[in-house]
């Protein structure tokens, strides 16, 4: 007879495999972000031999075009996910990802780069709803928080892989190598099941039972009948035909309250410097004249983000989301202040797009910005970056979850576009230290909001979380 420990391991493993399969898409998204970091450094270097050289204005757009193009699919991603299913929605996204990486390889003009970035942005926007909904609907409450955090971990792994590949190869060759990842992603997604929630909403009860049995350790359907009945009860208030849209469901307090909170958190997370600092990290390292190659420094920064994501997983598991978020946001605020102080002390006021040594004065502490930016990435992915994305799949009611995820993602992309586009102008207006001290102030505002308004959802079922907002 199989031991209870063995059965529990199988139960956890099946859910981990399902989440890891969809995480391959997030690895691709992270690789796209890492690639933009390398493109900015490579195509703005006036001393390079590149056939494509971008102006400073074009550089602002290269960091911003993906977020703004992502608006195309944010709302529709929820509708598509509801219509064709989470799994098929995820599988379909491997095609534009593959085409995009081919596009980078053959790019000859700046607009080719912009068009490819836009394609990846649109693909990313259609990713959000099925990815976030899938992980919420296939995991058990005590695993959901930790496994939701692996979404950001996967993005960090993608950033690390791409920056490492680009540090070894020319950016065109790196794009060609990356074409293999969408193919691997497609293979992984083919082996995992559709979510039992979506199947129930289509009145496909037998398939839903089989899906749940797969997700609970490849057991028999009889062994998951009790949980199946609970899920079925939670889905009973929604009509099976998901093509029928009821606008009134988006005005209920169970939707409006979590939507308002998450909208604030998404805007807040865009204006604490994570996106712009990541995309311009190679240029920042060059400006500070760190003692190692700027691309290796970016790899180190990406690796720090992975460690932060891993710590976040364990911290959420043992301490919950609230304590993890509050402590990491406070540390992030301090990190911004330290970056600003260093830049102020050594008179670093603007970014310099060149391979020449850019620090205005040589000093014995040029390793400090390398340490600070690595700490920046580590702390960011311990909590501030993860918090909204962990909550997004949990707080909406069943009947509005997919569309809610898409709408909230659109809020993030609009604010992210604005933050990335304004970054260089903010530095020109307030200087580099002033920008990071401003980020520190915004961090503090988010700390207060998180402390007073963000509830603890760890260990609660999706129905319990929905009931909390319905009663609030």
TrEMBL record:
Record's bilayer topology term: Multi-pass membrane protein
Keywords: Cell membrane, Membrane, Sugar transport, Transmembrane, Transmembrane helix, Transport
Spans traversing the lipid bilayer: 12-41, 61-80, 89-107, 171-192, 255-275, 295-314, 326-345, 365-382, 402-423, 435-454
InterPro entries: MFS_dom, MFS_sugar_transport-like, MFS_trans_sf, MFS_Trehalose_Transporter, Sugar_transporter_CS
GO molecular function terms listed in the Swiss-Prot or TrEMBL record: transmembrane transporter activity
Matches recorded under Gene3D superfamilies: MFS general substrate transporter like domains (1.20.1250.20)
Domain of life: Eukaryota
Residue ranges constituting the Major facilitator superfamily (MFS) profile domain according to the UniProt record: 18-458
Keyword Transmembrane helix in annotation: yes
UniProt xrefs under PANTHER family: MAJOR FACILITATOR SUPERFAMILY (MFS) PROFILE DOMAIN-CONTAINING PROTEIN, PTHR48021
Gene Ontology CC terms, in alphabetical order: plasma membrane
Subcellular location: Cell membrane
Protein name per UniProt: Major facilitator superfamily (MFS) profile domain-containing protein
């Amino acid at each position: 007879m199989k031991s209870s420990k063995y059965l529990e391991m199988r139960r956890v493993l099946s859910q981990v495999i399902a989440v890891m399969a969809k995480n391959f898409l997030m690895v691709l998204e992270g690789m796209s972000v890492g690639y933009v970091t390398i493109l900015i450094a490579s195509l703005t270097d006036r001393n390079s031999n590149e056939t494509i050289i971008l102006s400073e204005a074009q550089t602002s757009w290269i960091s911003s075009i993906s977020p703004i193009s992502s608006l195309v699919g944010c709302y529709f991603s929820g509708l598509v996910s509801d219509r064709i299913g989470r799994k098929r929605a995820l599988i379909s996204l491997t095609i534009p990802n593959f085409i995009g990486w081919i596009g980078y390889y053959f790019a000859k003009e700046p607009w080719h780069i912009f068009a490819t970035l836009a394609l990846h942005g649109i693909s990313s926007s259609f990713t959000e709803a099925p990815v976030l909904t899938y992980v919420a609907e296939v995991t058990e409450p005590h695993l959901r928080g930790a496994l939701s955090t692996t979404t950001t971990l996967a993005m960090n792994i993608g950033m690390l892989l791409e920056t490492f590949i680009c540090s070894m190869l020319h950016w065109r060759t790196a794009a060609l190598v990356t074409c293999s990842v969408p193919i691997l992603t497609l293979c992984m997604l083919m082996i995992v099941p559709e979510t039992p929630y979506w199947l129930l909403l289509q009145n496909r009860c037998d398939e839903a039972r089989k899906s749940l049995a797969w997700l609970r350790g490849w057991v028999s359907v009889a062994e998951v009948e009790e949980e199946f009945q609970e899920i079925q009860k939670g889905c009973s208030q929604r009509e099976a035909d998901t093509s029928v849209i009821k606008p009134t469901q988006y005005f209920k307090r169970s939707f409006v309250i979590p939507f308002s909170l998450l909208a604030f958190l998404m805007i807040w997370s865009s204006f604490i410097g994570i996106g712009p600092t990541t995309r311009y990290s190679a240029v920042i390292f060059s400006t500070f004249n760190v003692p190692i190659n700027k691309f290796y420094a970016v790899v180190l920064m990406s690796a720090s983000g992975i460690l932060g994501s891993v710590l976040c997983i364990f911290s959420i598991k043992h301490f919950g989301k609230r304590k993890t978020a509050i402590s990491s946001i406070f540390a992030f605020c301090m990190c911004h202040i330290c970056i600003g102080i260093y830049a102020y002390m050594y008179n670093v006021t603007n970014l310099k797009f060149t391979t020449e040594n850019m620090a205005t004065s040589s000093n014995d502490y040029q390793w400090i910005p390398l340490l600070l930016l690595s700490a920046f990435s580590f702390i960011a992915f311990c909590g501030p970056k993860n918090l909204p994305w962990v909550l997004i799949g949990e707080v909406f009611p069943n009947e509005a979850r997919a569309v809610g995820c898409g709408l909230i993602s659109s809020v993030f992309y609009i604010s992210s576009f604005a933050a990335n586009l304004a970054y260089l102008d903010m530095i020109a207006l307030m200087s580099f230290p002033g920008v990071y001290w401003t980020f520190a102030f915004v961090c503090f505002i988010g700390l207060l909001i998180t402390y007073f308004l963000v509830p603890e959802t760890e260990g609660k079922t999706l129905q319990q979380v929905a009931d909390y907002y319905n009663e609030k």
